[in-house]
Write a structure and sequence with these properties.
The chain is of the alpha+beta class. It is built from five helices and six strands. The strands form two sheets. The protein has a four-stranded antiparallel β-sheet with strand order 1-2-3-4, with helices on one face.
């Protein structure tokens, strides 16, 4: 479960989902820092529309809008993640994020060697338990692997904080990049995603990584 997973649907009609939109001028004020100007880019992915927002300092959020059913996943042939407009005016960090997402869907096994963008969201700053859990997940739970909530709590230094780990997953502002879909229950069940509304997406992502690793 992720922060962005719980985002509201975009409200676009089905026949306008395929349009690429870029928005300028959105503001976000971070504690102790001046406002930064965000830009939002929409990508058409096998999961439907994904919106990536960021500024010069890094990526703020990734939202999976769930506006279409996920694409059929087969082991034959790559999948695509399409941006229709030029990225010339976007920040290097946002461009890096888009390139990572495109690689994740088309050649997922290559993402481990790609540079990650910087992050610029309060949940990923400082030494809070949420930040620590998300950083451990990003660093130690690599492509094609899974980890239980209990084990992730241990890895983050507090074995009793299983519920807090679940809370950290809900607050994850950058799903896919920080792979909260790889966190499963101790029983081996995949567990909820997007507050239960995106469980089918979690299964899709885990299958995508399993099949991608076989390529």
């Amino acid at each position: 479960m992720c922060f962005a997973e719980g985002g509201k649907r975009s409200g676009h009609r089905r026949d306008t989902v395929w349009m690429h939109t870029v928005k300028f001028g959105s503001k976000m004020k971070k504690q102790g820092e001046s406002q930064c100007t965000q830009k939002t880019i929409s990508l058409l992915s096998p999961l439907g529309t994904i919106q990536v927002s960021g500024c010069e300092n890094g990526v703020h959020t990734i939202q999976i809008l769930m506006d279409v059913a996920p694409a059929e996943r087969s082991s034959g042939g790559p999948l695509s993640c399409v941006v229709n407009d030029s990225l010339a005016e976007t920040s290097p960090e946002l461009q890096r994020c888009v390139e990572w997402l495109q690689a994740y869907f088309s050649e997922p096994q290559t993402t481990g060697s790609l540079p990650l963008p910087g992050f610029h969201h309060p949940a990923l700053q400082g030494d809070s338990f949420t930040s620590r859990v998300l950083q451990v997940l990003l660093r130690d739970v690599t492509f094609g692997k899974t980890v239980s909530y209990k084990r992730l709590a241990e890895m983050a230094g507090n074995p009793r904080a299983v519920r807090a780990v679940g809370g950290a997953m809900r607050k994850n502002p950058v799903p896919l990049l920080i792979p909260c879909h790889r966190v499963i229950s101790s029983s081996g069940q995949s567990g909820p995603y997007m507050s239960g509304k995106g469980n089918h997406l979690k299964q899709w992502l885990l299958t995508h990584e399993r099949q991608g690793g076989e390529g």
